[in-house]
Amino acid sequence: MQVKNCQRYRIMLKNRKIASIEMSGHKVKSFTPPDTKNKLPKLYVVKSGSEVIYVGVTSQSIQSRLRYGLKAQGKGGYHGYKWKDLSEVDILIWHFPNESRDYVEAVEAELVYLFRKCTGKWPKHQMEIHFHNTSEDEIKAVKAIFKESCE
After folding, report:
1. Among 63, 126, 133, 138, which Cα is nearest to 96's?
2. How many other CB atoms are there within 10 angstroms of residue 131's CB atom?
């Protein structure tokens, strides 16, 4: 699989809600397609400055996934994102329209491990990883995403 360039956003947070969104340095009203599409596997990297602090996967619209992670307060044991009290983060999103959730989770796990291998520490706010055996194709995807995440 060839990994296409990611969508990059800067989001400003206030009271655990998205206050504003920027794309390419310009304010936008919301996330743009295909990030808004449900049932489309996505991998997203959250950065604070130049530091990768979280890697996640979702098939929901990114707006819905972020809202859920920002507002969670422990119901059912889920406390949400550990980075939800920051004032600003960058989010990079890749899409996997023809891949299974297991494929995207394998890429997520290998990517998180690669960040640890290169920096000596896990992403600061990473809470869980779903490990799967990976194929050469998944490893190629990880390397491409890693390179773009570090830019």
Report:
1. 138
2. 12
Taking phi first (over 0 means left), then psi (-120 to 50 degrees means alpha), and beta for anything else, what does residue 6 get? beta
Whole-angstrom distance, CA of residue 54 vs CA of residue 104: 15
- Domain ranges in the chain are 7-149
- Note the pLDDT of residue 1: 63
pTM, whole model, 2 decimals? 0.91
Residue 13, both tokens: 């947070």
DSSP letter assigned to residue 77 = G
Spans of the chain below 50 pLDDT: none
How high is the pLDDT of residue 13? Answer: 98
Residue type at 139? I
The pLDDT, as a whole number, for residue 10 is 98
Q: Give, for 115, the enclosing helix (H) or strand (E).
A: helix 101-119
Using one digit for the tens of pLDDT, what is the confidence trace for 15-26? Answer: 999 999 999 899
Burial class from Cβ neighbours inside 10 Å (0-12, 13-18, 19+) for residue 128 reads: exposed
Distance of alpha carbon 116 from alpha carbon 99, whole angstroms: 25
d(CA 36, CA 128): 24
